[in-house]
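Do me a favour: review this protein, sequence plus structure tokens, and tell me how the chain folds. Record follows.
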Amino acid sequence: MLLVLSDEHKEHLGFLPEVDSAVVGEFGRIAVEFLRKGTNPKIYEGAARKLSVDAETVQHGVEGLMYLLTESSKLMISEVDFQDSVLVLGFTEELNHLLQQLYLENRKEIRHILGELTPSLPHYHNLEWRLDVQLASRALRQQIKPTVTMKLHLEESGGDKSAKVLQTDPATLMHLIQELEKALAELKTTHCRRILRNIK
């Protein structure tokens, strides 16, 4: 699978051929460090002074490299596909090889960092439900007003459990079921399966 880069990212990466290969390697180290700890404008300013360019150019170069490495790591693209993806940038063979080395050396760590950044969501544990029907009230002697009450038990990734109580009428519940069935059917399409395969 090839990585498709926007014109903006190509423009940001266009700064890399203008600097020495050691600087590109340092930019790669900074990009991975920024993924770990967040950006630091002082580093951009220091590098900009050494290279005699403005800090924004350095920032765009590092961010472009960070995008290239993170997207490639997310998709776990092969060495050949990575080479084909950067060929469109028109870099020298030496720079393409250097970028490939940066990718191969850092992809496991980048995937680990990205895995830690994803939010930990609770998952389904159990469901209790009850159907209540109001047949009459003081105002209306004859009525049928059904209500579905559900207690949804969730489990956090740490093992903690919580419960949410939900209440709805049968018509809304039927609509919700239909929407969920549509979503499940959508997951079975080839387009969705291709996307899910690439996410993993």
